[in-house]
Design goal:
Blueprint: E1 5-7, H1 18-36, H2 45-64, H3 79-90, H4 93-100, H5 105-121, E2 149-160, E3 174-179, E4 201-209, E5 219-226, E6 237-240, E7 244-252, E8 259-264, E9 269-279, E10 440-452, E11 456-457, E12 459-463, E13 467-468, E14 476-477, E15 482-484, H6 489-492, E16 496-497, E17 502-504, E18 506-513, E19 517-535, E20 538-554, E21 559-563, E22 569-571, E23 576-587, E24 589-603
Parallel strand pairs: 1-24, 10-13
Antiparallel strand pairs: 2-9, 3-8, 4-7, 4-9, 5-6, 5-8, 10-11, 10-24, 12-14, 12-23, 15-20, 16-23, 17-22, 18-21, 18-24, 19-20, 19-23
């Protein structure tokens, strides 16, 4: 049974929901199941819990070197990964410690092999630590406080529902019972590596294949638990529709018949490989111990030999701790794309002026009147003598101006000439070329995203379509894939309006961790998605998105990028938009909180 892990950083407060209560119930139910499998005395709860802790540590070490492994067909683990985990499980605590600090796969393999060799030649206490009595004192047979005994086997496939006659895929919300020793009826071989008594638990690699079932947005989980027990609500692995996911771990089985159940939330094919088993120590089956014979006489005490000289203490090595590296500068925001040119058609030519109307005919000239008779010329009188010139008289004063006479009546306006005929309309000019599509860039200083039960999306973060985040909104949770911002005034300020119709086919996102995070044995996937809608208060996800993954030890300032491919988002002028950042998880830790900064660019 696989225990749920948690890994959290800067946890925020939010109201308890039915999902939160389900998480608590699932953990409680899981712990009950671990205790119940040991009710027959074959393995104690402490032994099972100790085995769970050891394989979690072993897988965490193996996951650090995942880049050095090559998975086999259908998700089967690399033989080197199996060898590393098997030797860590059957080795001693020193081997586990040295493998934890190893800086390469070869160093980790060597540490694990040495630990397995030491444990094969000495006795080990319940904590896996050697002590001065280990070589002389073997483990007590049947000691219930000791570890479960781990034995690796050659990896063997015991289940493959894709094989003809193996029952086909497990339907949604149902379980199927399988035998731990395999068999052709369940699509696997007969694994004879653990004949005899039924083991307390198996080390399994479980692969779920949902290709052809569901969609990438349809999330679900798979549970593994002993046959005959109630379904525990705990997850072995989490996956989306139309995908393949594998995960390793310890599965306790029914101690009476060796069977176990697999439950799937959504329809899926299941493939299971076993590569080792845990068995509880059993009592010695020999006859009763005979009576103790009489004690022999005590021999003379020999002389005490001289004490040897104490060797000199070796010098303590001292290495200088290297200075911490300088945090890289934050990359500059990319330039905003140029605005497309406005198309302009040619203005049509002005029509010709209409022809002037004809001039009216000239009226006839009237007849000349009759000329009067000229009278006779009178007799000219004699010229008088010229008198002397008189003196000039004084100039008299100017008289007052006379009263202005009334303005004459306005003449009658002439008749308006006839309007000429309208000219023909000119030909319309060609339509100008369409300008380039829209492009936007946005950024966010620090946002918090979480994953919840099953590694599903919890709290989300948002960015505007263009420009910087105006304010950090409170924790937001998606309901049914839609984003309703009508009751969130702060979130509503991030929503922006598209100025024109168009299509977006590219999205590129950059995520920067603003706080250190440990994800050993787990993977968190960060996804940026464009949400649009005709109403600013009800937005839905478009197919335009991209994802980046983080795992292992995440340092402050670590950067991941991703680019969308194949998705198209169509918007109309006046539509509203928002960028949404979500997180999902897989592996050991399914409950996570990640604080990130982000920048997102979308374009045609």
């Amino acid at each position: 049974m696989k225990m749920l892990g948690t890994n959290t950083l800067r946890v925020g407060f939010f109201a308890l929901s039915s999902l939160t209560l389900a998480i608590n119930s699932a953990i409680a139910a899981q712990q009950t199941d671990v205790r119940s499998v040991s009710s027959d005395g074959s393995a104690s709860a402490e032994q099972v819990a100790h085995a769970q802790s050891k394989i979690s540590s072993a897988m965490s070490i193996a996951n650090r070197f995942s880049a050095d492994f090559t998975p086999g067909p259908n998700g089967s683990p690399d033989p080197n990964r199996v060898q590393l985990i098997n030797n860590l499980l059957r080795g001693d605590a020193r081997g586990m410690s040295e493998a934890t600090t190893a800086t390469s796969l070869s160093q980790a393999m060597a540490a694990a092999n040495a630990g397995a060799t030491r444990r094969a030649n000495t006795a080990i206490t319940v904590t896996g630590q050697q002590n001065s009595n280990d070589v002389a004192t073997p483990n007590a047979i049947g000691d219930t406080t000791d570890d479960l005994v781990y034995t690796p086997i050659v990896p063997c496939r015991i289940v493959d529902t894709r094989v003809n006659g193996a029952g086909g895929p497990i339907q949604a919300l149902t379980n199927r019972t399988f035998a731990g020793v395999g068999g052709s009826a369940q699509g696997g071989g007969n694994c004879s590596g653990y004949t005899g008594a039924i083991p307390a638990a198996l080390t399994l690699n479980v692969t779920a294949d949902t290709h052809g079932f569901g969609t990438p947005g349809q999330y679900g989980f798979v549970a593994v638990y002993p046959a005959g027990l109630n379904y525990p609500l705990s997850s072995w692995l989490n996956l989306a529709g139309d995908s393949t996911v594998a995960n390793e771990g310890i599965a306790t089985i029914n101690p009476t018949n060796g069977n176990f159940n697999v439950f799937t939330q959504n329809e899926a094919n299941i493939i299971i490989d076993v590569y080792g088993f845990f068995r509880a120590p059993t009592g010695n089956s020999s006859g009763a111990t005979g009576a103790t014979g009489p004690t022999g006489a005590t021999g003379a005490t020999g002389a005490t030999g001289p004490t040897g000289a104490t060797g000199a203490t070796g010098a303590t090595g001292a290495g200088t701790t290297g200075a911490a590296g300088v945090t890289g500068a934050t990359g500059a925001a990319g330039p905003t794309g140029a605005t497309g040119a406005t198309g302009a058609g040619t203005t049509g030519a002005t029509g010709a002026t209409g022809v002037a109307g004809p001039a009216g005919a000239t009226g006839a000239t009237g007849a000349n009147g009759v000329a009067g008779a000229t009278g006779p010329a009178g007799v000219a009188g004699p010229a008088g003598a010229t008198g002397p010139a008189g003196a000039n008289g004084l100039i008299g004063p100017t008289g007052p101006a006379g009263v202005a006479g009334p303005t004459g009546a306005a003449g009658t306006a002439g008749a308006t000439g006839a309007t000429g005929a309208a000219g023909a309309t000119g030909t319309a000019g060609a339509t100008g070329a369409t300008g380039p599509g829209m492009a936007f860039t946005s950024s966010m200083g620090a946002g918090t995203v979480t994953t919840v039960l099953g590694g599903l999306v919890g709290t989300i973060a948002v960015l505007p379509v263009s420009g910087a985040e105006l304010a950090t909104p409170p924790s937001i949770t998606l309901l049914g894939g839609a984003l309703n911002v009508s009751t969130n005034t702060t979130l509503l300020t991030q929503v922006q309006t598209f100025p024109q119709s168009g299509q977006f086919t590219s999205l590129r996102a950059t995520f920067m961790e603003t706080a250190a995070l440990s994800l050993v044995g787990s993977t968190v996937t960060l996804t940026a998605t464009l949400y649009t809608g005709s109403s600013p208060t009800n937005l839905v996800a478009t197919p335009l998105n991209c994802s980046a993954t983080i795992t292992g030890i995440i340092t402050l300032g670590a950067v991941q990028t991703c680019s969308a491919s194949g998705g198209t988002a169509t918007v109309n002028a006046g539509d509203s938009g928002l960028i949404v950042v979500t997180a999902t998880a897989s592996g050991l830790s399914l409950l996570n909180t990640v604080v990130i900064g982000a920048s997102v660019a979308i374009g045609p």
